[in-house]
């Protein structure tokens, strides 16, 4: 792992009643160049056009692809992600969103906070995720 992860865990152990399998941690200790990402939504980074889907899984794939692309453009990799904040407009999408997000953070163990909000900037968006990454010294 790129950084020290304190109390790494998997959500299948923490939330056995939910169908989740995410590698997370209670804390991350990192040194290096910090990358702060704007909250990523299900839209193309080059055109700012929304993807043509109202499915939370498809939207989450696009959000996480955007995060990966931006981290890589900054010179990092997904292993450098230290924190994610997930904003959902419907708590019923939580498992689908977290399962999909988990595909991109397997073995990374970032800290993560999830919130349910009334709305995002556009009514068709179901999920927004902001990320922080640290490229090690």
In short:
The protein is an alpha+beta fold and 137 residues long. Helix content is 24%, strand content 28%. The chain has one domain: RutC-like (60s Ribosomal Protein L30, Chain: A).
Query: Can you list the strand order of the major beta sheet?
Result: 5-8-6-7
Question: Architecture, according to CATH?
Answer: 2-Layer Sandwich
**What average pLDDT do the residues reach?**
94
Task: Please give the domain count.
Answer: 1
CATH topology (level 3) name: 60s Ribosomal Protein L30, Chain: A
Count the helices. How many?
3
Order of H and E elements: EEHEEEHEHEE
Computed over alpha carbons, the radius of gyration is: 14 Å
CATH superfamily: RutC-like
Q: Largest sheet, described in full? A: 4 strands, mixed
Distance between the termini: 14 Å
Task: Please indicate the percent range of residues in DSSP E strands (runs of 2 or more).
Answer: 25-35%
Poorly predicted ranges = none
Rough outline = globular
**CATH domain class:** Alpha Beta
Q: Pairing-aware structural class of the strands and helices?
A: alpha+beta
Tell me the total number of β-strands.
8
Approximately how much helix is present in the residues?
A: 10-25%
Write up this protein.
With about 140 residues, the chain is α+β, with helices and mostly antiparallel strands. It has a single domain (about 5-135), classed as 60s Ribosomal Protein L30, Chain: A. The chain has helices at about 10-15, 55-75, 95-105, and strands spanning about 5, 10, 25, 25-30, 30-35, 80-90, 110-115, 125-135. The model has no long low-confidence stretch (mean pLDDT about 95). Helix 2 packs parallel to helix 3 (about 95-105). The protein is built from 3 helices and 8 strands, in the order E-E-H-E-E-E-H-E-H-E-E.
